[in-house]
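#lab-general

N.A. 3:47 PM
ok so I finally got the sequence cleaned up, no stray characters, all 403 residues accounted for. can someone with queue access submit it? mine expired

B.Y. 3:52 PM
send it over

N.A. 3:53 PM
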Amino acid sequence: MTDPITTDAQIINLLPNVFKKSLSSEAIDKLTNLETGRETWLLPPLVDLCARLREPGQQQHGTLSSEGRAARGNGFLHVVIPPDTNPILENGSLLKGLRERALEDGGIYLHILGALTAGLEGIRPSNIAGLKKGGCIAVSNARRTFDNDLVLLRTLEYAATFGMKVFFYPDEPDLSGNGVAHEGYIASYHGLQGIPWIAETVALSTQLLMVEETGISAHFSQLSCKSSVELMRWAKDKGLPVTCDVAMHQLYLTDDNLEGFNAQAYVLPPLRSNTDQQALLRGLKDGTIDAICSHHEPLNSTAKKAPFAESTPGISNFDTFMALACQLVRNEVLTVEQLVDKICINPAQIAGISTKYESLGGAILVDPNLEWQVTVDTMLSNGKNTPFFNQHLQGRVVETFFG
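B.Y. 4:20 PM
back already:
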C-alpha cells in the first residue's frame, strides 16, 4: 500500500510511505471523504525539540496531562524536554515512569534530555552512563552555566565516551547577567536591563570550539541572533557534527513587541532586533538552521501580572505553532516540503528517534487557510501566556491520526 489516499479534496499529501502504512482503515475512510475544494496538508506527526511541560515540579503552570493533550491536539506526538525540572532529570532509573505517565496521561511520546552535570551545577559530570541506560536521548546543562571552561571540556570528553549527543542553549551569564530584554533602543527606552547578542555568540563560539576538540555530536537550540547563524554556517562549512534550531516565535516577533512593557513577549533568550529576525529567516531558508522548535513554556494566569522585569519569562506555543508554520509557507520562506523537514523529519533525526518515529507512524491533517482567533477557549494548553492572544491566525491542525 504505497498511496492509500484517493480523494477529490485538495490534499497535499506529504506523508512518507512508511507513515501511510500506519493509517487505520477508519483514517483512510475519513480522508477519502473529505470536503472537496478545500486545500489541506497531510503531514507526519510533529516533533518538538524543546518544550517545558512543567511536570515535575511546576504543576501550577501545567502537567503532563494538560500539556501532553495540548501537544497532541496540535499535532505534536513526540516532545523533547530539557533536564531543568524539579527534581532535575539526572536519575536514569526514574525516567521510565515519567515517559509512561506522559503517554498514559497526555498521549505523547516523551524524549528526555538528561543533566550533563550533577545537579546542573556545572562542577562535575552527571552519571551519564546511568542516564543513557535510562533511555535519555542526549544530555544538556539547559541554560545553566559551567564552573569554568575546563569543566565543560572534560564533561564533553566524558559524554563522548558514551556516544551521547549534547544539547546546548548558548548563553554566557557573565554577559547576560540579570537582563530581561534584548540590549537595544527598546530596552533602554523602557529602562529594562539588556541582554547583548554577544552573550549568546560568546557562549556559542566557545561551545563550537569544544565540539571541534572533542568530536562530540551537538545540537544548538533556540538561536536568536544574526551572529549565531553566521557561526553555525561556519561550523557546518568546517564539517563539525552540529545542528541547530530556532524557536517559532523568534521568526515573527522582535523586541518591538515589548513596547508598553508587554510581559507576554518576555522570553529567554530574548526577542531580538529586526536585523536578527531577518538573519534567522535567511538561515532557515538556506538550510543553516535545521529545525524549528516550539520552546513551549506555559504559565498560570498570575505569572505575567508582575512588573515586566519581575514577571516570569515564557510563551505558550503549542497552540499557535502550526498557524505560524503555515505563514512561513505563505510568505515563501519555506515550501511545504521544506516545512515538513524542519518540523517533522529533521527534528526526529536530531533527537535520534527516526526509527521509533517511523515505526509508530501517524499523521496530521492541516487546514492552512482555516482562520481562528487565539482565545482562552481556542487554546488547549493550560498556559494562556502568548503575545498572539486575541489575534486572528490562519492555519490549524484539524485532524490527528495517532494510534
